[in-house]
Amino acid sequence: MESSLSLSSQSSSATPLRSLSRSSSTLLTPRSVSFPKRRALASRAVIRSEVKMEDPSVSPRVSSLKPSKTMAITDQATALVQAGVPVIGLAAGEPDFNTPGSISEAGINAIREGHTRYTPNAGTLELRKAICHKLQEENGLTYAPDQILVSNGAKQCIMQAVLAVCSPGDEVIIPAPYWVSYPEMARLADATPVILPTDISDNFLLKPESFASRLNDKSRLLILCSPSNPTGSVYPKKLLEEIADIVRKHPRLLVLSDEIYEHIIYPPAEHTSFASLPGMWERTLTVNGFSKAFAMTGWRLGYLAGPKHFVTACGKIQSQSTSGASSISQKAGLAALNLGYAGGEAVSTMVKAFKERRDFLVKSFRELEGVKISEPKGAFYLFMDFSSYYGAEVEGFGTIKDSESLCRFLLDKGQVALVPGDAFGDDKCIRMSYAASLPTLQEAAKKIREAVALLKPRIPI
Ligand SMILES: Cc1ncc(COP(=O)(O)O)c(C=O)c1O
């Protein structure tokens, strides 16, 4: 789950209305107002929404959190949709499919059968047993149920893990581009995020030498995400082994392996669980969940697996904050794991569709002058380097100076909502989610091509 937005002209009622309270009078523009005027009013709504007030009574821990960099562009897109502009929303980090029927049925049956009470804090025993079985069968990892903690989404698992293992001043090593929440979670734990940039020419994968050179006695946690949001990169086993060799030399260092996109992977790429590497079980907190592979974002269900003392520590935080995950979602999660190896046919059908879209987009954007792409091997995002266009002047718009202004431009001229790479720690790029139908993506690609035709790459490549 992330703070980016899901938009479509047809589903504007389901659009997050974050900006409404700040500019409701403008956003409630009658449809009778002309299109250009609606667009201008929508833009003005955004300018107003950018005036934010610092509240001095808020805790310094929260004040130190960076506001979401996607906020301004999100507000602009929301305002446009509210004004009736047919924006194609490709910013959302969630599958466009419905939860498979048997999973939903299990949730409905859970209610009918009265599974509507608190569950144990760590999750029901039947679900934790099923997770242990899955980790054994699919990942080669052996855990007992008391080494599993079920939470309200993988996001909660990661936050709790960071809080549980980091002391103030510890360093959390985060390869960039990263999922937006990792650095802020480190800050919430009074730890210091140490961002290690990666390069598109290395498929955005962490170089072992760059990792080794940044380690010191404060280094506490390395966060790996494979398949990656936002790049779609998948860490090959050999590279993970080289990283493990380095981890082995630093006894205080742990690894949080975020494997939430595990099943959304395109052969020949293969997923390797970091904890399965020699000596890494003791050093790894594995996070996974149901949101992405099973199209269950709204059910809020994820889990952490690791050595018991860490899992117990995370459980303590959970017991004093949210308690166990929804009893209904846990029944549904059990049904998801019963779909078979890697989610069975229901998941492979979705993955097949994602792959078809990926193939289309990669081909389509490779043909676009000045754009660099590293073919995603998993997840459902395309992270494209458009920086050769930075510096371009556009009449009536201004200068494209960074990923945010480029996204604003693509929204304004192409009516396609994307996320600036700056939000993920790489300002050269923009992220497109292909959790949308192929015809929608074809239309978006066409609109982006037309908008980009108004620009000339500043640096020809
Ligand atoms: C890399 C990554 N990790 C974790 C999460 C959180 O997932 P959940 O919906 O299970 O909280 C997301 C969601 O966007 C994600 O992209």
Q: What's the CATH topology label of the domain at 116-342?
A: Aspartate Aminotransferase, domain 2
Mean pLDDT: 89
For CATH, the homologous superfamily of the domain at 116-342 is named as Type I PLP-dependent aspartate aminotransferase-like (Major domain)
Largest sheet: 7 strands, mixed
* Ligands (ions, cofactors included): pyridoxal-5'-phosphate
Global shape: globular
Q: What share of residues are in beta strands?
A: 5-15%
Total beta-strand segments: 15
Give your account of this protein's structure.
- It is a single chain.
- With 461 residues, the protein is of the alpha/beta class.
- Among the domains are: 86 residues, no CATH class; 227 residues, Type I PLP-dependent aspartate aminotransferase-like (Major domain) (Aspartate Aminotransferase, domain 2, 3-Layer(aba) Sandwich).
- 38% of the residues lie in helices and 13% in strands.
- It has 15 helices and 15 strands.
- The strands form 4 sheets. A 7-stranded mixed sheet has the order 2-8-7-6-5-3-4, sandwiched between helices. A 4-stranded antiparallel sheet has the order 9-10-15-14, covered by helices on one side.
- Helix 1 runs antiparallel to helix 2, helix 6 packs parallel to helix 12 and helix 7 crosses helix 11.
- It starts with 19 loop residues before the first helix and ends in a 9-residue tail after the last helix.
- The N terminus is likely disordered.
- Pyridoxal-5'-phosphate binds next to helix 7.
- The site of pyridoxal-5'-phosphate (PLP) has 15 residues, from helix 7.
